[in-house]
User: What shape does this take?
Amino acid sequence: MWLYQAYKVFLGRKMYDESSRAKKKLMSRYPNSYEAVDVRWDEGWRLYRNGEFLEAGKLLTDSVANVREGWQRARALYWGARALAEGGEKERAGIVYALLLGEAPLGYYARLARADLDGGDPFAFRDARTFKDGAVVAPAEKKRVPADEAVFALPATYLRLGYPEAAIAELDRIGRRGKASGWLRYWSEDFHGAVEDASCAWNDWPGDTEGGVGDACLLSFNPAFPASVAAAARATGVHQHLLLAIARTESHFDEDAYSLWEARGLMQFIPPTALRIAGELGLEEFSQDDLFKPETALLLGGRYLRNLLDRFDGNLVSAIASYNGGEAAVSKWRKARAGVDEAVFVELIPYRETRRYVKKVFTALDAYGRMDPEGLLK
Assistant: This one.
């Protein structure tokens, strides 16, 4: 929206009168828009950073009263609760924390909220430069393939006879989505299709998982390419969950993904970075088309992540942010924000895409950790 863009550009250039006029027009014409919610967030965040905690808490929680779900709501509820708590309003803060965890029990902001309530560290993790031996356990046995649903009888038969490509083609022809087609796609090794068919967003995750996690969530965060992930983890010394979380965030496990910026494959490498990492691995006959091979993409991804973890002394936030925003940029941000609380540091990342990227990867890590007791996050 051009009014929001004008507001941010003028604000960045310290043209405060022009910024104020653009903001007033935006809030007047589109008070419930995505951009208007972000403007209220900016105001609440400024109050929080200035130590005006009670004012920030009220503004942040009120700012999403008409927002039903999503990252904006989770962000405002978390920081609103934290602001209230830091302002001494523990009871009110507890109510907002409970609201957040009730609506979105999985993910980045849920981890922050639980850590605040329990006194833990939301960024505590096992060293990402370690890995458990063997493949990540598949989420279900093949017996869960829905043979009893008549519409899926033919693709299920293809799969049982050992023709996964034919099963995928038939599923494409049928065109129905849901957990039945999702399981068929998963066992046909169409991991991207399984995610797409599952239609389970991070905020659909159940609050109570004692009885197990539902099929849609299992499929949405499925352990794709288990053999290749295990091999890459073993070769590079990076935890399998980190490889899975990056791959899911980058491409939704689409091994054929190709972006407008020429990023290729499962791990979305751009050509210069791919060539550099391939050289480090001694892949003499490497070509850019090899990035569309999951085993190669994961091997390069593991080596690059290991480099980033080593560069930032094992700091997971810095490694994840660097994978998206670049090593030089993250080093600059760390120097400028030395000593800043880690959750605050994430919100202060200048690149909007990188801020969101870090949160998405942590959400995926949270999901994999819920399904696997040997997860990366503690």
Q: What stands out?
A: The first helix runs from residue 2 to 12. The chain has three domains: 2-118, 142-220, 226-371. The chain is about 60% helix and 0% strand.
